[in-house]
Specification:
The chain has 199 residues and is mostly beta strands. It has a domain at 74-198: Jelly Rolls (Sandwich), CATH 2.60.120. It has 1 helix and 11 strands; from the N terminus they run αβββββββββββ.
Length: 199
């Protein structure tokens, strides 16, 4: 039978072993955590659960290097005023530039949507994206509209997913050109929007 002294000694050993694990407001693990196959993590339905409680905390998935850059993070740029050009070569659309910093092998989904027109009947407006200065759509761009009525705005949309990018800063832009006449990307109340989403 254990003596009171033996019980105290056992309790002390257990307390010493658990002191690094059980804190006042949390449990602290100093080894890897393994969850057996077929087991799930059940979360609350009211407040919810955060993975990472500060923007400088890092996490990685499927063997990737942990990073504080959120997967699925996005940026939007909105065309505040109309952009006009008579250039027959692609030029940057003022205000529609996004720069993001990513970890290695990140892909970025680029989206553009907005009203576009040419002031000349039958002429074209072509649109493209650039990634770090490289025109993704080449000479013809990624899409175009043909003007059925001079000066009539039509909705134009672009969607593109980049290749896996290297770690670091990358810049994305919307570019436009016209076949003749003047091309306009509308700003103001019915403005164009450019978005970049990490995927």
């Amino acid at each position: 039978m254990l003596t009171p002294e033996d019980k105290q000694q056992i309790e002390k050993i257990i307390a010493d072993k658990l002191s690094g694990f059980i804190k006042v407001d949390r449990y602290v693990f100093d080894k890897n955590i393994q969850i057996l196959d077929g087991r799930n993590i059940q979360l609350g339905r009211t407040t919810g659960t955060k993975i990472g409680t500060a923007t400088d905390q890092k996490i990685g998935f499927y063997g990737k290097t942990p990073s504080s850059v959120a997967i699925g993070g996005y940026l939007n740029q909105v065309e505040a005023s109309s952009f006009n050009t008579a250039s027959t070569s692609f030029v940057d659309v003022t205000g529609l530039t996004i720069t993001v910093t990513v970890v290695a092998d990140t892909r970025v989904l680029l989206l553009f949507n907005g009203p576009v027109c040419n002031d000349t009947l039958g002429e074209y407006v072509s649109l493209t994206f650039t990634v770090d200065g490289s025109n993704i759509g080449g000479t013809d761009g990624l899409t175009f509209i043909r003007q059925p009525v001079a000066g009539y705005f039509q909705n134009a949309s672009l969607v593109f997913v980049t290749v896996a990018l290297s770690a670091g800063s990358h810049t994305f832009k919307v570019q436009v050109r016209t076949s003749a006449g003047t091309a306009t990307i509308n700003g103001g109340a019915t403005r164009a929007i450019f978005s970049a989403i990490q995927v």
